[in-house]
Structure formats: C-alpha cells, structure tokens
Amino acid sequence: MGLSDSIKQRLRRWTLSMTGDDLDERLKGHRSQNEYGVDPFGFSLDYALSAVGPLVWLYQHYFRCQTFGIEHVPAGRVLLVSNHGGQLPFDGMMIGVALLTEGKPPRAIRSMVEKWVGSLPFVSTFFSRVGQIVGTPENCRRLLHNDEAILVFPEGIKGISKLYAQRYQLQEFGLGFMRLALETKTPIVPVAVVGSEEQAPAIVNLETVGKLLGMPALPLTPYGVPFPLPTKYRIYFGEPLTFAGRPDDDDAELEKKVKVVKASIQSMLEKGLAERTGIFS
Fold first, then answer.
1. Which candidate among 82, 235, 248, 257 keeps its CA 20 to 30 Å from the CA of 57?
2. Which distant-in-sequence residues (6+ apart) come within 8 Å of 217 by Cβ?
C-alpha cells in the first residue's frame, strides 16, 4: 500500500470515528458501479469518505452546526434549494455533511457549481470526486433520473458576493431549478442556512479586478482574505414543495412558483435569526 493509500485509510478511519462506523454500511446504496470506482460524473464514495473528515470536524467543532427539520428530506430524487453566502462554499459543504451524517437515510448529495470552477486546476478534480458537478440542465436531469439529491443555490454568484449589509437578503433567483423540478416531477425542499452569511463579512466587491483575474467577483473582508470566522451554523430544512405545470411555461408563471420557494427560505431565515442569541452562539 502506497503512502497515498495509507493516508486515505487514516482519513477514512478519522471520518468514521466522528460519524460512527455504521455510516459505511448505511451508504451502500451510493456505491460507484464502474471498474474504476467512480460514477459517470467522477464521483467516488470511497474517496469522499476519506476526504470528508476535515469537513465533519468543521461541522461538529468549528461551525458547531445544528439542523432543524432534516427529517423533511425524502428518499429518492429531490432538489434542495438554499440561500448562499460567505464567499467560499462552506454552506454547501455543511449541508452535505448534515445529510451524510444525520440524514435518515444518509444522503450523498450532489452540488451544482459554477462553470468557471471547472477551469481551476486540482480543485475541479477534487470537486468531481466528492460529488460536485457543473450545473448544466443536462447534468441535473441525468442525476434526478437516477434519484439523486441535488443542492442548488439559485442566487448564484450574487449570493456569495453579498456585502455584509446585504446579509440574509435573498438575491434574485434563477428559474432553471423550477423548470427541472417540473420536467422531472421532483419535490423541492427549501433550505435556510443561518451563520454562513457572516462567516466572511465583505465590505467591498472589486468586481472589475476579479474579472481581470478570471473570477466573476472579488469581495474583500476587513482582513483581506475570505477566511471563515467560526460563526455558528443553524441549518433549516423545510417541508417538501411540489408544483404542477410545464417546464416550458412562460417565465411569469415560473416566477410565481419560484416566489413560493423563495418566501419559504426567507421565512426560515427570519425564524433562525430571531432564535439565535448571537453570531457565534
């Protein structure tokens, strides 16, 4: 066994020591099927169980995550639709750890990432191995037909580049997730994350400089870099929403349905903000 394999085994044992040894057994349904140990999108459950250890530690000890309503997430295909913030996607990672370690049954969710992420060296390969995929309609459609759980951030770049004064103010939602839900008859579970939008408080967005560097935005914190502060996460899962209609309906009709999802998330955000005693507690 080479050094890399030895490290992977140690990381895997670390993960299971925090989540319980039975996690491996409970995730059997997510096993990759081809001879290379990956699915058609490059996801490897064995790799993910080795890589997720540091994220489980962050979940349990750094962000001290609490979940509410996680039992609302159904088995089978589902779209998880969440607010987005914090510049770096720790909110998505923590939602993923929540479903992996506390979901009943546990779910290995797939997150949609921006197309530009695929151009990053090393990062793009890592993301694919742990289940993240470029958020094209075709990719989403294929995964939903395989009864996967997909995490979507309809605010997109506008979400993670919010300034501190804009925290928890939901930006405009795209309509794509609703078209997919209608086409594939997929329930939508609204998700609200409280804590992520203060983890890297941006005071200015140097968008023009960011574009020169090949990034869609460049928000800066008072301390320069987007290193996350140890804010306490509260993750709320709403009851599943189902919608009737056609995916090719006019935008105005789709927007009515999207507003229902957005209102549900905003309501949970307000509830979470009212219930917490402080940003770090």
1. 82
2. 157, 160, 161, 205, 207, 210
